Sequence to fold (207 residues):
Amino acid sequence: MKSLVITLLAVSALIFSASAQEKREMKPSHKPGMMQKHHGIMMAKELNFTDAQKQQAKKDHEEFKQKMQELNKNESITVKEMRDRKEALMKEQKTKMNALLTPEQKTKMAQLKADQKVKREAHFAKHLDKMKTELALSDVQVAQLRSQREAMQAQLKAIKENESLSREQRKEQLVSLKEQAKEQHKKIFTPEQQKKMEEMKKKPGHN
Fold:
């Protein structure tokens, strides 16, 4: 039931997740080094890093970790400056990791991302079928949900990849996009369907 309700609110949930992830990454108490280390290990495994690549990746990670530790000790800057500097360090680390890749590894990474996208689409299609049955959605409503999801995903991608946006601007646009999704849902679902969705959320099995 949980996966069904998440699917019913797929677009807004997607936006909320992106916004929440950004908040977690920017929290002073969060440990970006652990996230970067995990990402690096997974990348090395999936792309069959050479010993030289592994050594360089380890060196880059240690430097990144040290910079983060020094930044955390800096009590003379504001919370905003702290978050902005951490974001810059994470971007710098990502750039270094990507620079390690050979053309063949970059191609493989692109393929892995494409495979993940196919899996996400299959997952969405599966739960959309459940939604259609549970709420007696019409074919028109199903088509509208698919169209809305595609449009919102494109807008979300554009926001996340817009390097000119500040952290606050990105946050504001994500919140705005989430509100748009809610309003569009109201236009797609009938009052009865919306009521049923709310009832499903309150059921004991939904946790």
